[in-house]
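Each record in this resource describes a single protein on a pair of labelled lines. The shape at a given residue is found from the number at the same position. The record below illustrates this layout:

***
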Amino acid sequence: MRSYLYLCALLLLGAAPVQAMEWQWLNAMRQSVQETNYRGDYIHRRGDQTNAYSIVHRFDQGQAVELLRQLDGDMIEILRDGLRTVCYFPDGSEAAMTHAVPAAPFSQVAELDLQRIGENYQARASGEQRVAGFNARIIELKGDEWRYSQRFWLETESNLLLQSELISADGQVLEQFRFTRLEIAVTIEDVELTPSLKDAAVLQQVAFRSPADVANDAGYRSALDWLPAGFSLAHAEARQDSTGIYEQRTFSDGLTSFSVFIEGLALPATGQSTLAKMGATTALMTAVNGYSVTIIGEIPALTAKKIAQMLSIDRPAL
């Protein structure tokens, strides 16, 4: 991967000199997570739910390959090879197939857009701590009322991400990723990237990530009259059949994202809404002009509610 022009990016951000090194570390973190060989165990906590995983990650000939295993609860193995993701489940684990596919933060994301992130987050260094036996520097990104703040622990030599947290406006840790065991810059053999369930599993899910296209929601029946500053359309999908319309939009600010789903036939409005939270993830289910609307993502409830208030949907002409 080409080296980043840190100084140019920071000048574009208009970052104060005290922030320059923080942004440089964050940029190096993204590259390190993708291009470093490592293996280890980590925990992922969302609210009251905690799961343990192992990960083996190898970068070879310009491509990252990683194998994740869930170590508690449902047995799941996830193999990511470039743009291809395969999930393996043992027989009898149909319920596990409905779960979100886990991933170590930033291991599969595109290059961080520092200019965009810097317009909506304030970066500052916040001391050092040890994580999984490694010294780590702590970087905090402070968000506004419409988004969570984030905190990152970066290994001081490699800038590999050792721990991350999503934090509410009142300082509560909503979601946490943390390595408990880690080996860095190791040789990864092919056998370590071979799922143990590859031959025995009868349940598999295969997905392909396409290179990012320019999202387009022209002609959609719904419209959003407000977005939090810095969020822009990242993905759009729509169809219509005998069951009614289906419209999906995903918005991102470069670090976090949320999606808006609209579906069904135009029915009389019920006026009822349901709000659910798990860790940093908020899900708001409501009705707008008779259509079913779901807003879900790593955003505060305040943000989800305002998005719903500012959403309009045209009913078909009679």
Summary: The radius of gyration is 21 Å. Confidence is low (pLDDT under 50) at residues 1-18. The chain has two domains: 6-208, 222-313. DSSP finds four helices and 19 strands in the chain.
